[in-house]
């Protein structure tokens, strides 16, 4: 993916679990990443988690770059096999998504919205993707607002082993309608 946005070019590359682990560790343990639930993770925990994802047939992790520099993490997964098994009835073309924007001391206005929009464009670039599924913590109001901004509609609260989540969906048509003004 390579997307030009109001904040500059955003691209993704496959995550390298070992080479990227130290940087990821600094991101996922930062206080702003509390909803990522890795606050107490050691470097080896992060390496192991992303090696597990890299080896998984139905879960993928990508390093997001802004002007060529690491700036966000993107994960996609098949909810029939990962994260949401038994918690809802998946439809053909469902793709699960997680994203995390790197902490910064110099925030760029509109950056996180640009990232989630680019992530969604990347997911919908695959014609097999019909709907994107997310399950953020019910208390993560900032991400709920972002999700709504790109077309997600909340469906129901679900209980996962690690959290109470707000299951939400976004079809290609909902995404295109929500982002038509920002293109």
UniProtKB/TrEMBL annotation:
<dbReference type="Pfam" id="PF13523">
    <property type="entry name" value="Acetyltransf_8"/>
</dbReference>
<dbReference type="InterPro" id="IPR016181">
    <property type="entry name" value="Acyl_CoA_acyltransferase"/>
</dbReference>
<comment type="pathway">
    <text>Siderophore biosynthesis; mycobactin biosynthesis.</text>
</comment>
<protein>
    <recommendedName>
        <fullName>Lysine N-acyltransferase MbtK</fullName>
    </recommendedName>
</protein>
<keyword id="KW-0808">Transferase</keyword>
<dbReference type="InterPro" id="IPR019432">
    <property type="entry name" value="Acyltransferase_MbtK/IucB-like"/>
</dbReference>
<keyword id="KW-0012">Acyltransferase</keyword>
<feature type="domain" description="Acyltransferase MbtK/IucB-like conserved">
    <location>
        <begin position="13"/>
        <end position="60"/>
    </location>
</feature>
<comment type="function">
    <text>Acyltransferase required for the direct transfer of medium- to long-chain fatty acyl moieties from a carrier protein (MbtL) on to the epsilon-amino group of lysine residue in the mycobactin core.</text>
</comment>
<dbReference type="GO" id="GO:0016746">
    <property type="term" value="F:acyltransferase activity"/>
</dbReference>
